[in-house]
Amino acid sequence: MSDTASLSAADEAEFRERCRAFLQQHATGISRESRGEDRGAGMMAAAKKFQGALAEAGLAGMVYDKEYGGAGLTRAHERIWREEYANFPDMTSELTISHGMCLPVLNQFGTHEQKKAFLADNIAARTVWCQMFSEPGAGSDVASLQTKAELDGDEWVLNGQKVWTTLAHLSDYGVVIARTNPDAPKHAGISMFIMKMDAPGVEIRPIHQIDGGKHFNEIFLTDMRIPKDWLLGELNNGWNQATAMLMYERVAIGTGSTSGVTHTSADGLIAEAKRRGVIGDPTIRQALMHLYSEETTKSLVAMRTRAELKAGKAPGPGGSLGKLHGAKISRLMRSILGDLFGPDLIANQKGDKAEQWGRTLLTSFSSNIAGGTDEIQKNIIGDRVLGLPREPMVDKDVPFRELRVGTQKG
Ligand SMILES: Cc1cc2nc3c(=O)[nH]c(=O)nc-3n(C[C@H](O)[C@H](O)[C@H](O)COP(=O)(O)OP(=O)(O)OC[C@H]3O[C@@H](n4cnc5c(N)ncnc54)[C@H](O)[C@@H]3O)c2cc1C
Predict the structure, then answer these.
(1) Are 151 and 159 in contact (CB under 8 A)?
(2) pLDDT tens digits, residue range 317-353?
(3) Which of 164, 204, 330 maximizes ligand 1 atoms within 8 Å of its Cβ, making it the mutation to test the pocket?
(4) CA dist., res. 217 & res. 205, Å (int)
(5) Which pLDDT band holds residue 209 (cuts at 50, 70, 90)?
(6) Which residues contact 161 (CB under 8 A, 6 or more apart)?
(7) Which residue's CA is the nearest one to ligand 1's atom 3?
(8) CA of residue 372 to ligand 1 center, whole Å
(9) How far is the CA of 81 from the centre of ligand 1 (A)?
(10) What gap in Å lies between CA 31 and CA 348, rounded to an integer?
(11) Which of 58, 46, 166, 175 is CA-nearest to residue 110?
(12) Residues 202 and 291 in one domain
């Protein structure tokens, strides 16, 4: 990663203009309306096109080394980019996992050879990556995972099942965690790997969502083979690396891809309240003001998190604050939508405003679960930010194979 140096006023103005010119030309074609059932394929195609152009312009992977396909610029450049990007439609939301989580983990834990092989394509979105942590019996307690990886000559052989894997069906590679030592306690016998999503032995089954979309999946791994040197990081250190990835995830979800103060949901709902002629209603005004203030506060907290990253700090448990705040905002948004639309939210015509907002409402429930549930964020904040006593852990020193988790009898 590049340094944290600041820029002269002239350099800053020049770079800002360069970002703005790029965005004016390329940040088009995505709107709230285009985030419908097609979420996935259509938006991924737009994201790839945008990101490809960004790479060609020398602006993709802003703070990553040029040697690995990054722009080799500083956190100060990245901040300017985010500020300008906040004024345009978010073209790259489908790359949140690929870029917000997989890329920093590959960069942090990958060997020089792995980075040479994978980073440039990831940065330019020539390849898309997904995250394969959760299993049917291991979500909040992901260390209980049962997918196993065994070494057979020069290859790892993986068997097991993953679930809720966002955009796996549109991804080329995955970062997967699997058990490599069942005799060690559950947190100690896990390793992280790179895998190819179209390898023999990988079956991807889409999950149909309540909002009409199909953007996450179940994945079955049956004798799936990967090269020995696709172990990512150290053997049996997968838990620490997974924790690092989850922190990147919470920062990515909690701060988004833009910077500056934004209040997108409030803006949309204020416009909607005006359209429906209820903007003068004091109860609705009060609720809209509340939403506006929460979104503004969230932006400010996100700016602080970004400033910490710019100062060279690794993302810590504070990322959970942004993530939890986002979930709270979603809850508030749902309540206002109910007041504005009433039964129209479910009894509507395809393509009308109520249908679009109804879909937004249904999708928003995921924010309380994806990337770790609200309860888990509260546990992390209590224990690691506020210093409250930790949750008791009775299985900490017990060998994994003796535990009754998932389908394992113990
Ligand atoms: C939209 C979406 C996208 C996702 N994408 C991915 C992805 O790309 N890759 C991936 O690996 N996973 C993904 N997930 C999975 C997600 O990480 C898990 O759903 C989440 O961690 C919760 O796990 P679970 O569903 O097994 O629920 P459980 O862990 O079974 O939790 C059930 C309930 O118990 C509560 N609970 C559990 N433990 C505690 C505790 N210790 N204290 C208090 N309450 C507790 C939870 O808060 C929850 O309310 C995604 C999920 C969603 C909704």
Answers:
(1) no
(2) 778 888 899 999 999 999 999 999 999 988 888 878 8
(3) 164
(4) 5
(5) confident
(6) 135, 136, 146, 147, 218, 219, 220, 221
(7) 370
(8) 5
(9) 32
(10) 20
(11) 175
(12) no
| Ligand 1 binding residues, C-beta < 6 A | 97, 130-134, 139-140, 164-166, 216, 366, 369-370, 372-373, 375-376, 379, 391
Are 54 and 89 in a shared domain? yes
Measured by CA distance, the residue closest to atom 52 of ligand 1 is 370
| Ligand 1 center to 371 CA (angstroms) | 7
Query: What is the extent of the structural domain holding 348?
Result: 242-385
pTM of the model: 0.91
Query: What local confidence, expressed as pLDDT, does residue 7 receive?
Result: 87
Residue 35 has pLDDT above 90, yes or no: no
Judge if 95 and 14 occupy the same domain: yes
Say if residue 62 is in the same domain as residue 98: yes
Question: Which of 35, 97, 323, 373 should be mutated for ligand 1, with most atoms under 8 A from CB?
Answer: 373
Q: Is residue 99 part of a domain?
A: yes
Please report, rounded to a whole number, the percentage of residues in the chain having pLDDT higher than 70: 94
- Per DSSP, 138 falls in state B
Alpha-carbon distance of 65 to 67, in angstroms, equals 5
116 & 177 share domain: no
Q: What ligand 1 atom has the least distance to the C-alpha of 137?
A: 26
- The alpha-carbon radius of gyration of the chain (Å, integer) is 22
Can you tell me which atom of ligand 1 is nearest the CA of 372? 21
Question: How many A from CA of 380 to the centre of ligand 1?
Answer: 14
User: What positions carry a catalytic annotation?
Assistant: 249
pLDDT band at residue 247 under the 50/70/90 scheme: confident
Last residue of a domain, one of 96, 128, 160: 128
| Shared-domain flag, residues 173 and 47 | no
2 is a domain residue: no
Residue 381 belongs to some domain of the structure: yes
**Which atom of ligand 1 is closest in space to residue 132's alpha carbon?**
11
Q: What tens digit of pLDDT does each residue of 138-162 get? A: 999 999 999 999 999 999 999 999 9
Query: Is residue 257 scored above 80 in pLDDT?
Result: no
The tens digit of pLDDT for each residue in 344-384 reads 988 888 878 888 899 889 989 999 998 899 999 999 999 98
Determine the distance separating the centroid of ligand 1 and the alpha carbon of 235, expressed in angstroms.
25
Q: What is the DSSP string of 205-237?
A: EEE--TTS---EEEEEEEEEEEEGGGEESSTT-
Residue 106 lies inside a defined structural domain of this protein:
yes
